[in-house]
Structures are given as structure tokens and as C-alpha cells.
Amino acid sequence: GVEALVDALKKNEHVKKINLHGNQISDGGAKRLSELHLRKLSLSCNKIGSTGASFLAKSKIASLDLSANE
Q: SS in 3 state form for the chain?
């Protein structure tokens, strides 16, 4: 899940853009994803609420799509 993805991406800093549209990612997953240093992250159509959005807003992600979440 998100845990394994974040762990892998922390080891591979060449990935700068990720589209995780429609993967049922919740606030906990959003918190983990906020640890990444990405240029662009699409998380549209997931299950991210205000708590997860708050973590992502404080992240170093330059471009973030949170449309159609909870």
C-alpha cells in the first residue's frame, strides 16, 4: 500500500511526479505521502479528509491535486 510506496520513493529521489487518482487513500496515507519531496502529486478521487489535506498542505510538494475527496 501507501507505506511501501513511500518507503520505496524515499530511496529513489528521481521520481518527481505521481498520479494516485482513485486509490482509496485516506488521511493516514496522505500523512505518509506528505513526507515526500515531489514536484507534482495527484490524489484526486480518494478518501482524504481535512486532516490528510492539512498534512499535505504543509508538505514540500509543489503541485497538489486533491479534487473530489471527502
A: CHHHHHHHHHHCCCCCEEECCCCCCCHHHHHHHCCCCCCEEECCCCCCCHHHHHHHHCCCCCEEECCCCC
13 — pLDDT class (breaks 50, 70, 90): confident
Q: Which of 52, 39, 31, 34 is nearest to 13 (CA)?
A: 39
Q: How far apart are CA 49 and CA 45, in angstroms?
A: 11
pTM: 0.94
